[in-house]
Design brief:
By secondary structure, the protein is an all-alpha fold. The chain has 13 helices and no strands. The chain starts with a helix and ends with a helix.
Length: 303
Amino acid sequence: MTAVINGLSKIATQQKKTVYLCQLLTRIAKGKTLDCHFENDQRISPLESALSIWTLIEREDSKHDKLHEDIRRLIQIQVVAVHMEKGYFKEAAEVLERLFTDLESNKPLRMKLATIIKSKDPYVPFLQNFSYNLLISKIKSYVELFMKDSETNFLIQAATEQVEAKELGATMLQKEPANVNETKEDSNLETNQSFMEEQSITNPSPGDVRKPTVRPHSRQKHRKSSVLQNLNSLQNVDKHADAWACGRKRQRWTYAEDLQLKSGVREFGVGNWAKILVHGEFNNRTSVMLKDRWRTLCRIDQV
């Protein structure tokens, strides 16, 4: 359908070969029906038209040279043989002239067919040895090889797409922070503000500035400033928490905490440790601890 709509020049080589092969099989199926025409020139029989299609296939396929030659020779022989079987000996001679325009091209075959046409015997051993059934058998062999190649190409292409998709996903996870869902931000904003205000009172910092209460109707207008306030408060919390954590015994990371960390990275992106800390359930951890643990998990995954 792509070839019909956009033209053969705009499709891939394998698709183009598929189109040519369908055209070839259609002409071979009608090969012995001389009143069936695929070309504007009414003298051109189905097999003669098939020969021109086979030439196009040979141009697109660099494999199976011996099979190509066998099929080409069989089509040439059967173009003449079918005319002789129908008793069209004059037409058979004309076909022979069209098939071998160059006198030096395959001269032995040309001379052999010219002799057979003069004998007007369509059942000579030579024509029987290179029969229509043999032509069909050779073409079936080529079709089987073509289908096998097409299947292999399809599997390789599908596998490549899967690998590229996984690599892209890993790259996005490492480099691009995910956007926070606006609805989720609205639902957690007040909770985060209360938590930050409580931490600021417990651990006051000289740089902390008391922010005016945000009225409900103006929440949309001041959302960004509130989030920034939360992040600034988080930095103050981390400073005091880090100092407190340095004097206590290191605590092993649990499997549940690792899952929380991985989930947070997927949601907020690598580097947003403060957000991950607030939204996750960790046991006395700091954003620095989250960052160090993430590096450790990455090294474990690479082993």
